[in-house]
Amino acid sequence: MRVVIAATTGLGTGESYYFRGAHDIALSYVDQPPLFFWLSHVSLKIFGTNTFGLRLPDVMLFSGTSFMLYLIAKWFFSEKAGFYTVLIFNLSALYIIDGIWFQPDAPLLFFWSVGLYIMVRLFFPKAPLTCKNELYLWILLGVDMGLTGLSKYHVVFFALGVLLYIITRERRVFKNPGFYLAGVICLIFFLPIFIWNYQHDWVSIRFQSSREFTDNFHLHFDWFFRSFLGQALWLLPWIWVPIVVEFVRSYRLGKTDNKYWFFFCMALFPIVFFTASTLWADLSYHFHWQSVGYMILFVPLGAMVEKRLNSPTRGRTLKWIIFSFLFAYGILFLAGVQEETGFWQKYGPKQLAEVTNPGTPKDQIVEPTMDGYDYTDLLTYFETHGLLNQPNLFVGASHWLISGKVDWALKGKIPVRSFEEQRNYSYYFNDNYYLGQDLIFVTRDNTDKVLEDTHNYCSNLQKVDDVPITRHGRTEMVLHLYKCDNFHSSPVN
User: Fold this and answer.
1) What angle do the packed helices 258-276 and 221-235 form, to 10 degrees?
2) pTM metric for this prediction
3) Which of 88, 149, 212, 328 is the most exposed place for a label (fewest CB within 10 A)?
4) 215-249 confidence digits (pLDDT tens)
């Protein structure tokens, strides 16, 4: 089901923005480590520049994550507990999306789950480990943590969870050379990130720290409660509540049961840090950052579901599972059909957007699911007018989000520069190389806004054309094309 959705639906704004990183790979990037870019780069080379090729590694890795959770639940509880762990895990909206979208979360979840399984083999062996086997597991853990770090900077919280468990329950590990060898191996895998950041003034560290820590410290309880609400909605409230219950139970039972203490330690840091930090940092709608913490809690939840299905509450538990399946995959199906066809015209997503954006003119409001619809009409226009093969010409857009949508629409066949906010585009695009060339500026904004974005960079702004973006025969939005002559040196954003 995920493969079909991955192949047949367009890219979201974030996915489109990340596309150029997979098209032109580097040692690392401004806002993410490089592994998911590298994997999709290989996939694009094999399957071509399409959504299937870009997303396939994420679909495959998420299946691997499910299997790792099954193995962990089977190790601690039973095969049936493993089955229900994977079932409920795949009914949560957040993880369904993580298993489809081109994002760093799929490799992060996979290598995090592999690391959890290695720790289970180390600290909860079925039979005493030999020194050789224990060293082998520590080496594997070091490699896995290195790959986790290449996936996302969340590896810091994995390391903290490991340390908390070791300090509280396995202090003997500090005398084991394998523990230190694992740390060295992990650091070796970080070399591409270190090298790239050293070459670029540690921009990733500055970017990530600016999101969590600000000079103007104020408590914002509205952001804090928004974080709780967002996490509940992403996981689905009727799954989030049992997960939170398991978090509390893991702490309580962990006082006497090491496996529950293990669950608690590995869940603690990402959940608490990214939730608590919303008190002072506007993390916007990044409610998925806690996902690696919640993931391990599906294991005791799977065991609890197995227990409930063998109790008088079996009927209610079955209804809960069936409802979760119908809701999650029903919404996913409807969203995919709406995204590709726009069939829901009356009292639908666009009307909701109008209500939530009262000060915006209706003709400027775009139906929200268009964020996941590809601008194929733009590619057709460029091909028809011979713009893709025209020398001394590149494309620009105002913001990294719209730049990504334009870049993906043109399938990386022409360089794209972001003007207002660049992020990774500041390193994809070398201004000096394009001095003196002409620019086609693609936007949904008016002429005054385009002038504001481009007046320091090029001359003789002229509107060229309008490109309607149609869906199922209806024009959903209009892209405006402007021509700018003689791109010249400009201040660095």
Assistant:
1) 130
2) 0.94
3) 212
4) 667 788 888 999 999 999 999 999 999 999 999 99
